[in-house]
C-alpha cells in the first residue's frame, strides 16, 4: 500500500459493502491521506434500481453492474478485497472475514444494506417468492417468468395453464410497481406474437398491496396516476389485501376478510426489507448498540455508533433519524449522501480540520416507472407523470450510470428496446446444477 | 397451426436443435407449405464462436444469444417448443420429449450438435475442466478465471498464489487458442492495474497441444504466425504435450516422455468433442444406423439416414463424407449450409419438384482470433494474419449476428472494449446454491 518510505502508517479506513454508500464513501476519500480497503462479497457494484429490468429481460446483468476493480483502478489509495465479513472485533479494531482473515482499521464504515424480509416466514416463502436485491434474484425471476410462458405453451391442461400464466407481485412500493408493470408489458406487448398455442395477453398479473394505495411514499395524486397506468398495462391491483400463505401452486390472499386462494406459479416478493445480518454482528461486538425492529443499528447524527466515533454505519443498514425525527428511508440517494458525508468526516479528522454538522439528507425526490414510457416523479412541490416523468427518470439514471461506464451500453440497449419494443436480454439461463 | 379451414393437414417438419443447423433449416422453410416445430432445450439460439468472449468477460450472454421466439416471431408457419427430446420413435414417426409428450412428424431434422469429449474420463475431468459449448460453461469459466485473481489477491502463501495464477488450456484448435489468448490479454493488459497485492502480469497461461502445431486445420504458415502472436500475449504454448491427469490442485502433463506436474486451479477443456447423446438415441430407434467413433450417425450425401429419406441429420451431429471422402468438420458454416440444403430438399419434395444433387460444402475459409486485434484467416489460397485478419473476422461475425438483432449491441460493446481496453462484462455471478 502507499506509505512513505520512512513515514508512519497512514490512517486505515475499512469499508464493508460496495453498494451506493460504501462506494461513494471510498470515492470520497480519493484525495484523503488514508489507505482505504473496500470489502465486498461480490466483485462488482450493482445498480439495484434497474434490477427489475434484468428480471424481465430488458437489460443484461453487465449493463447494471460494474466491476469494483475497474471503478477504483486509478484510485491508488484504495484496494479491493473480495471477501465475506463474518464478524467485527471492535476492541482490537479488526474486521473478521469468513476465511479467517483479520483486517485492522482505524475507521470502519459498514454499508452492507438490506435483504428481504419475509416477516418470520423465511423458510417457507423464500424458495417460492424471490425478492429483487441481487443479480441472482433477478435472473431467477427472469427464469421463472419466461419459463412460465414456455411451460404454458406446452401444457394441455387448461387449469395448469391458467396457473402458469398467473403472476403475483407482493408489495405496492416502487419495486413491486415496476416489476408488475414490467411483467405485464412483457406479456401483453413484447411477447404477444411469440407463441402459437397460448395468448400471452391472457396472462394475469396481480399486484397485492396491504394499504389502500400503491406508492405510499408518493403524493396521493401520483399514486392515482400510477394506478391508472398499471391498469392500462393490464395489471390487477388488489389494494387493502394481504398475502397469508405461499405454496408451490399458488398463494392465499386475504381480501378484506375474505380469504381467496389464487393458483399461480410465479410470485415476486417486494413487500419488505430488513437489515443485513451484519447489523446483528455489530451488536454482538458492541452490546450497547440498539437495533430497530428491522435489525438496523441506530446511529448518531454523524452516522456513527453511539460512543464509537470510529465506527460508521450508512445506507439501508443504518437507522438515522431525519429532520422530522423519523428514520430516513432505505433509498439510494440517502446511502449515497451518507457515504460522501462520512468520507468528509473522516478526511477532516485525519487532517485535523474542524468537524462538520450532523448529516442532513437532501431529498431530491422520488421516481417510479410503469412500463416502457410512463413514470411518476416528484421533487419538492413539482409532480410529474406520464412520458415526461419517464424521460426525467431515464435522464437521472443514465447520469448515475455514466459515472461508472455503463452509460453507453445501457443507453443503446434501452434505445434499441424502445424502438423495437423488444427485450434483447430475454434468456433463460440454467443454474449450475442443471447445466446441460 | 396454420391449416386451411377444410384442407388436409400440412406436411409437418420437426427440427430438434436451435443452433446453426436447426435454425437455418427452419428459416429456410419460411415460404414452404409446411408446419415447422423447432424444439430446443433452451429458449435461445447461441452464437457459439463468441462464447470465449463471455468466458473472459468481454461480452454478456445476451450479446451472443437471441431468443428463438424473437427470431421466429414473424414466421407464422413455425412454432417453438422448449423441451428436451429424450427419444425417437421412427416407426410411429414421433419425437418423444422428457416430459412425456409425443410430437408427430412427416420429416425430422436432428441438429443437436456436439458436446465435450473427455476421452473416457468424463466423471473425473468434467467437474474440474469445463469445456466451452454453453452459456453456463462460459459463465463458469468466467467465475473461475476472475475468481482466481480475487483469491490470489488475498492469499498469503506464495505457493498457493502461484497455483491460483496458473491457467491451463487444453487443446490447440481455434477454441483453445482463442481462450488462451483471451485470458492472457485479460491478465496481462486489461486487469494490470486492478490489484494491489498481486501483479496479474505474472499469471501463467499454458496452452497444451498434442500435435506439433496449433491450429492444425490451418496452413502451416498461419499456425506459425498465430504461435508468435500468442507468445507476444504471454501464452506459453506446450506443443507435443498431453494432459495425463487433472486434479483439483493441478494437472499432470506428459512432455515428450517426461511427466511434469503443473499446479493450477483453472483448467479449460478445448481438446475434443463428441456427438450429442441423441446420436445414440437415433441408433436405438433404428439399429441400422452407423455411428462413428465420436458417436455421429453416418448420413447419405443428401444428409439423411440410410433407408430413411424422411429423417435428416445435420451439423456437428452428422458424419457426412465431404468431396474428399473425409467427414466434414464440425464447424458452423457446415451446419448452416446443411440446414439450408435440407430445407430445400424438403420443400422440393412437398411441392413435387425435382430433387437436387447431394450436399456440397462450400468451404469459405477459417478464422481464429488471438487477443484483441490479431487473427489468422484463410480462404482458398488467400491467407491473412494480423490486424487485417482481425478486421475481416470482426466484419464476418457482425454480419452473421446482424441477422439476429444483436449486431448493434455487440458492435458497441466491442468498440467500447477496444477503445477502453476494458471488459465490461467482468462479473462474478453466483450459481444458484450460493445465492447471497
CATH top level class name of the largest domain in chain A: Alpha Beta
> How large is the radius of gyration of chain A?
23 Å
Strand content of chain A: 15-25%
**Which residues of chain A sit in consecutive blocks of at least 5 with pLDDT less than 50?**
432-436
Helix content of chain A: 25-40%
Ends distance of chain A = 44 Å
Task: From the 3D structure, determine the CATH topology of the largest domain in chain A.
Answer: FAD/NAD(P)-binding domain
Structural class of chain A: alpha/beta
What's the total count of β strands of chain A?
Answer: 23
The dominant shape of chain A is elongated
Question: What is the CATH architecture assignment of the largest domain in chain A?
Answer: 3-Layer(bba) Sandwich
State the major sheet of chain A. 6 strands, mixed
Number of helices of chain A: 13
Largest interface: A-B, 62 and 61 residues
How many domains of chain A? 2
Mean pLDDT of chain A: 90
Structure description:
- Two copies of one chain form a homodimer.
- Chain A has 436 residues and is α/β, with parallel strands linked by helices.
- Chain A folds into two domains: 7-41 and 83-116 and 274-351, FAD/NAD(P)-binding domain (3-Layer(bba) Sandwich); 122-271 and 365-427, FAD/NAD(P)-binding domain, CATH 3.50.50.
- The first copy, chain A, contains 13 helices and 23 strands.
- In chain A, the strands form seven sheets. The first copy, chain A, has a six-stranded mixed beta sheet, covered by helices on one side.
- Mean pLDDT of chain A is 90; it is low at 432-436.
- The interface between A and B is large, with 62 and 61 residues.
Amino acid at each position: 500500500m502507499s506509505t512513505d518510505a520512512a513515514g508512519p502508517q497512514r490512517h486505515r479506513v475499512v469499508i464493508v459493502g460496495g453498494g451506493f454508500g460504501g462506494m461513494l464513501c471510498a470515492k470520497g476519500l480519493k484525495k484523503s491521506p488514508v489507505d482505504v480497503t473496500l470489502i465486498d462479497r461480490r466483485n462488482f457494484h450493482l445498480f439495484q434500481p434497474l434490477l427489475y429490468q434484468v428480471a424481465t429481460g430488458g437489460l443484461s446483468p453487465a449493463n447494471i453492474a460494474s466491476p469494483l476493480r475497474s471503478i477504483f483502478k486509478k484510485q491508488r489509495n484504495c484496494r479491493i478485497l473480495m471477501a465475506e465479513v463474518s464478524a467485527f472485533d471492535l476492541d482490537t479494531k479488526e474486521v473478521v472475514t469468513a476465511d479467517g482473515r483479520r483486517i485492522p482499521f482505524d475507521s470502519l464504515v459498514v454499508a452492507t444494506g438490506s435483504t428481504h424480509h419475509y416477516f418470520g416466514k423465511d423458510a417457507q416463502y423464500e424458495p417460492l417468492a424471490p425478492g429483487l436485491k441481487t443479480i441472482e434474484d433477478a435472473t431467477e425471476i427472469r427464469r421463472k417468468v419466461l419459463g412460465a410462458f414456455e411451460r404454458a405453451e406446452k401444457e394441455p391442461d387448461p387449469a395448469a395453464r391458467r396457473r402458469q400464466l398467473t403472476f403475483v407481485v407482493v408489495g405496492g412500493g416502487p419495486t413491486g410497481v415496476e416489476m408488475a408493470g414490467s411483467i405485464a408489458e412483457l406479456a401483453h406487448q413484447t411477447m404477444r406474437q411469440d407463441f402459437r398455442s397460448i395468448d400471452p395477453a391472457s396472462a394475469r398479473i396481480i399486484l397485492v398491496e396491504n394499504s389502500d394505495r400503491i406508492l405510499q411514499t408518493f403524493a396521493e395524486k401520483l399514486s392515482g396516476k400510477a394506478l391508472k397506468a398499471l391498469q392500462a398495462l393490464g395489471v390487477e391491483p388488489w389494494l387493502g389485501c394481504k398475502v397469508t400463505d405461499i405454496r408451490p401452486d399458488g398463494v392465499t390472499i386475504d381480501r378484506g376478510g375474505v380469504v381467496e386462494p389464487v393458483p399461480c406459479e410465479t410470485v415476486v416478493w417486494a413487500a419488505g426489507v430488513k437489515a443485513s445480518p451484519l447489523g446483528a454482528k455489530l451488536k454482538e461486538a458492541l452490546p450497547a448498540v440498539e437495533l430497530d425492529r428491522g435489525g438496523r443499528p441506530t446511529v448518531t447524527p454523524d452516522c456513527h455508533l453511539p460512543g464509537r466515533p470510529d465506527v460508521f454505519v450508512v445506507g439501508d443498514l443504518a437507522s438515522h433519524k431525519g429532520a422530522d425525527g423519523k428514520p430516513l428511508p432505505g433509498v439510494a440517494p440517502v446511502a449515497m449522501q451518507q457515504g460522501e458525508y462520512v468520507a468528509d468526516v473522516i478526511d477532516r479528522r485525519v487532517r485535523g480540520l474542524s468537524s462538520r454538522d450532523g448529516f442532513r439528507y437532501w431529498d431530491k425526490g422520488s421516481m417510479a416507472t410503469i412500463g416502457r414510457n410512463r413514470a411518476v416523479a416528484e421533487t419538492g412541490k413539482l409532480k410529474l407523470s406520464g412520458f415526461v416523468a419517464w424521460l426525467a427518470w431515464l435522464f437521472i439514471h443514465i447520469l448515475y450510470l455514466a459515472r461508472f461506464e455503463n452509460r453507453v451500453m445501457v443507453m443503446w440497449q434501452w434505445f434499441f428496446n424502445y424502438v423495437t419494443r423488444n427485450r434483447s436480454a430475454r434468456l433463460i439461463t440454467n443454474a449450475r446444477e442443471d447445466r446441460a
